[in-house]
Input
Amino acid sequence: MDTHKHDKVFYITFSVVLGFLLAFTGSIMLIANTLDANEGVDAAARKRIDDRTAPVATVVTDAAALVKVAAPAAARAPMSGADVAAKVCAACHGSGALGAPKEKADWAKRKAAAGGVDGLAKSAIAGKNAMPPRGGDASLSDAEVKSAVEALLKQAGA
Output
């Protein structure tokens, strides 16, 4: 068989297949453009779809914008020990959840083991067992944590 003829047959066959694929792709694109994807969808449904498919976050790559985003929060007024105990500590220490001391006897054991109020405050600042550092509120100062420990001891009568 002549190799020249074989190459010509391959070229013609390849061109026909490629032409068919291009025509098929073009017809699919034409059909897709003529159909309205939003047909029959009311504005409220479209809004719900857009809300559900909206991005959940953005990536900041501009250094100047990053400084604005990472600006520290405005300073707040210091809270009293009773306020901190009520807002932050009461969830666990009010119910004794996850072994948090609640009763006078529990606090007395912890106070003796920690070496007094200062030791309990240091432990609360660092976190202990299931309790996160500063009771989970990183904005609390050391003095606020210590006054909260004192307020909890007072509430328990320890």
The two ends are 105 Å apart (CA to CA). The chain has a mean pLDDT of 82.
